[in-house]
Amino acid sequence: MMLTPSPELPGYRIVASHGLVRGNTIRARHVGRDITAALRNLVGGEIAEYTKMMAEAREQAIDRMISEADTMGANAIVCVRFTTSYIMGSASEILAFGDAVVVEKEPEVEGF
């Protein structure tokens, strides 16, 4: 499955659009990570535990979006976007969404 944030794929043409696809996940913070994060917050720097958790959440959201596009018969997703939202004090949602399309390779022009 090809994914792109742009509305088109260079070298391909969109022959069908199946509409919006999305994938999401809601993740809650872990008490052990919160303690580590609180300590790291005192001295500054990246909170690697949360960085890893958010990266895993993005991948899960992408996988779910791709699964939905597969079900529709798409072979690409264009205009891919991500958004996050606050659910409650210790949980956030990651949402990946885009347009499920069918693309075909552009014919090569001879003589150039």
Count of strand segments? 4
Distance between the termini: 30 Å
For the record, what CATH class applies?
Alpha Beta
What value does the Rg take, in angstroms? 19 Å
- Percent of residues in beta strands? 35-45%
CATH superfamily: Hypothetical protein apc22750. Chain B
CATH architecture: 2-Layer Sandwich
Largest sheet: spatial strand order: 1-3-4-2
Which parts are unreliable, with pLDDT below 50 for 5 consecutive residues or more?
Answer: none
CATH third-level topology: Translation Initiation Factor IF3
Note the main sheet.
4 strands, mixed
Percent helix range: 25-40%
CA-based shape: elongated
Multimeric state = single chain
Characterize this entry briefly.
This protein is 34% helix and 42% strand. It has helices at residues 31-43, 48-72; strands at 2-3, 12-28, 76-88, 91-105. It is elongated and about 65 Å long.
Structure characterization notes:
This protein is 34% helix and 42% strand. The chain has two helices and four strands, in the order E-E-H-H-E-E. It has one domain: Hypothetical protein apc22750. Chain B (Translation Initiation Factor IF3, 2-Layer Sandwich), CATH 3.30.110.70. It has 112 residues and is of the alpha+beta class. The longest helix has 25 residues.
Helices and strands in order:
Blueprint lengths: L1 E2 L8 E17 L2 H13 L4 H25 L3 E13 L2 E15 L7
Parallel strand pairs: 1-3
Antiparallel strand pairs: 2-4, 3-4
Question: Main traits of this protein?
Answer:
alpha+beta, Translation Initiation Factor IF3, four-stranded mixed beta sheet
